Amino acid sequence: MKNYILKVENEDFLASVSNLFRLMLDKKIIDLILVPQETPQGKCVVQTLVGEASKVVTANPFAPVLLGNSAKLVSDLTFRSENKKIGVVLRPCEVRALVELVKLKQIDKKPLFIISVDCLGTYEVDDYKNNRQELRHACQACEYPRSKLYDMNIGFIGCDIKSEIMIKLGEQHEGIAKELLLNQFDGEDKSEGAVKELKEKRIKFKESLFKTLKENIREISGLLDILSTCKKCFNCQRACPICYCKECIMCGSTFQYQMRDYLKSVNRAGVIKMPVDTLLFHLTRLNHMSTSCIACGQCTSACPSKIQIADIFNMIGAKTQAIFNYTPGENFEDELPQATFREDELNEK
Amino acid sequence: MNNEQFQPRILAFVCNWCTYTGADLAGTARIQYPPNVKIIRLMCSGAIDPIYVIKAILDGVDGVLIGGCHPGDCHYQNGNYKARRRVAVLKAILEEVGFDSGRVYLKWISASEGKLFAQTITDIVNDLKKKGPSAFAETWNI
Q: What value of ipTM does the predicted structure carry?
């Protein structure tokens, strides 16, 4: 893995990055690129799929906003892929979701050229639009400002972005540096230090977040209190990149009740909360996907009741992953914990 | 409620090839065990989705037994190993949200172990009598 320098011209690093993407398309390193661009009105940044170099104009993968975890889009793009090389510009959390989706056989990684970008965190969409600068909880607790897996990483942490951006290329791609007019950088890479520092700050936040939350949900009544405003809209499940089922078991007819089912419950307890099964829904989702939860926080962003559900999934996910010593999104090799087993483990007394 | 009078309700998810046959043996051999258990037969312990275990717990059962073949003896090669991982995840989650994961029992009982099945149920009933009723039996806002 080598470091390269992308010279920024006219102190406009966004233009330089757009330029880099255009070059990649021009030189046929990739045929298509999935890249966040500013909308013409300039109020928001959305993912775009571009096939013509001249149409990469306002690329801005650094804007602190995320409409959804783009790994889901990549899943669609690689479904029966058409022999095209697709460059996908992703944030670290999206790359980690991509890794999990590859393991879940929802993404074919063969046609992909993963371009990861450093990320300092994102704001909720309406906060971004209204210029409120408040990082999402998930981002404040995120220990991955820089992706570990990439074909190319665009790094600005620890750089003077007015003059240069640090580009890292995966080993098998070092040949393209020349085509992209990148100069090799042999000096000391100071950015890793800055990344590490940021990471430590984030871990500290995460620990304090978990500590309070753990205190709050130590009794089941604590969790019931947090979930009391859940209206079971399934937005969190739909926004989740890991929840890939076309139809969630909770949405199907299995848990569609009739009068007599309700009557049975009412007769037993005298009173039931409606809609039913909110706690069941969240606990089931935890069972089904928490070992792969990459803590992107999209569930919280999708929640109309503004429940900080991602904090709960993040914390409990860390626990379930720890059982199998598994870190989701870390690499393509580790097997999904719930898809494999060891003969000698977890022995019951 | 007095713990002596308290009769725990247990739901057992058992696999067709071992634990269910073991329970059958307990019956045909006329081995006495407490009648607190309702048995649901599945083809394999690996076929148990945690959702049904959680559903039972939230509906107020006092304990859940998951029974399968001994490790290495699964009729489908490795279903019970996968069940073991799933149960480990389930227990960790229940523990985190403040539910006593000790109310979920994972036991390996083979087809010839009718006695062990009866003993297991007896032990679980005694254990649950000590623990008392599940918190969810009295909670309505779930």
A: 0.95
